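Page 37, continued from 36.
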């Protein structure tokens, strides 16, 4: 099994899957190509946190963005509009970077770029979104509305990203540690 840690969350991938921390900061993160050839050369380019390629013959490339609001003063619902733009930008920038890495034969990213040019490759963008448990009782009207409609912004985000990314040929999935599905093929552990 290959495991990658991002923001206090472990992503576990089965044997035979390629997985890299695409925009990581440490030497162990496989981020050399992204840092040297993309981020430090081009302004305003961002990448997803983790990229994974399922084992053959299941041709699925996962672009995984992790957002952990469990200890944050902000909420995903309040950040939905910003998250929409972030996920789209990071997905498109990452695909561009992976394409360049595949064309140049970058060995560090080969585990996730080896099947980049296969026509049957499905590209799945995943927003892994962890939120805090329900807190104290609401005191303002806005808090009461959010409690009664806790997923309004998140549901809108899911619909918008599904629509926009499907128009680009990508599948979109909104997941959390409690909503992972067997068909995803990989698992999540909270640290």
């Amino acid at each position: 099994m290959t495991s990658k840690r991002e923001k206090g969350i472990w992503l576990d991938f089965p044997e035979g899957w390629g997985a890299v921390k695409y925009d990581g900061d440490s030497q162990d993160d496989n981020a050399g190509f992204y840092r040297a050839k993309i981020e430090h050369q081009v302004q305003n380019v961002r990448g997803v946190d983790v990229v994974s390629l399922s084992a053959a013959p299941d041709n699925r490339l996962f672009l995984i963005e992790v957002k952990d609001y469990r200890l944050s003063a902000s909420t995903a619902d309040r950040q939905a509009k910003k998250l929409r733009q972030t996920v789209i930008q990071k997905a498109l920038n990452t695909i561009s970077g992976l394409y360049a890495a595949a064309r140049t034969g970058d060995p560090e990213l080969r585990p996730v770029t080896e099947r980049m040019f296969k026509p049957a490759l499905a590209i799945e963008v995943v927003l892994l979104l962890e939120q805090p448990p329900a807190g104290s009782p609401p005191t303002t009207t806005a808090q009461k509305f959010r409690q009664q409609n806790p997923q309004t912004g998140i549901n809108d985000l899911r619909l918008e990203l599904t629509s926009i990314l499907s128009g680009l040929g990508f599948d979109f999935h909104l997941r959390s540690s409690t909503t992972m599905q067997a068909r995803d093929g990989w698992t999540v552990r909270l640290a």
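The first helix runs from residue 32 to 39. Flag for discussion at group meeting. The first strand starts at residue 2 and ends at 6.
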